[in-house]
């Protein structure tokens, strides 16, 4: 029996993404057209559009589609913008950011995930993007391409310890999507570095997602 992924994508949009207040047509078009199933481990392929975190191995997982939709909508990536993704994971969010026109540099500390994501991304024509193994918070990691118009953090941070460092990597007008807190309750935020240098914070929604690997702990990070 052939799986009807096109119907599953439609159902994902109508039953998960739109009800979560994702109304940006550019975002909806990308989610409706792009094959999420190509980025899911083979054992979970038939669950590609389910409202779950799909395991990737090494305690990592894919974000549910509704959270991906809110992330993409909040960042509002425009063609030609420089985008940093922290936490490549499966490469699906990377691909969506590129589909929106971003020139994406994606980092992950897990070389297995990076290699797999690179192979999946290479199978699609996605414009300019780069995927590499690196720890954004390591003292010896150069932030190539900074400053960025948008930064997407796909794992949670326990507190505000590293947020100022990420804001410093934004252009004036740049946007940061980040989830802050500890299980069972976290908050998703859109943080914008305004043209006058001030910082604007918008609380988006409550959620709970896996922590970013090797994330700085309270009081442990100096930049």
UniProtKB/TrEMBL annotation:
> What Gene3D superfamilies does this protein map onto?
Vaccinia Virus protein VP39
Highest taxon above the source species: Bacteria
Q: Which GO terms describe its cellular component?
A: cytoplasm
Q: Does the keyword Mitochondrion apply?
A: no
| Gene Ontology molecular-function annotations | protein-L-isoaspartate (D-aspartate) O-methyltransferase activity
Q: Which GO terms describe its biological process?
A: methylation
Matching CDD domains: AdoMet_MTases (cd02440)
Q: Which UniProt keywords apply?
A: Methyltransferase, Transferase
Q: Which family does it belong to?
A: Belongs to the methyltransferase superfamily. L-isoaspartyl/D-aspartyl protein methyltransferase family.
> What protein name is recorded for this chain?
Protein-L-isoaspartate O-methyltransferase
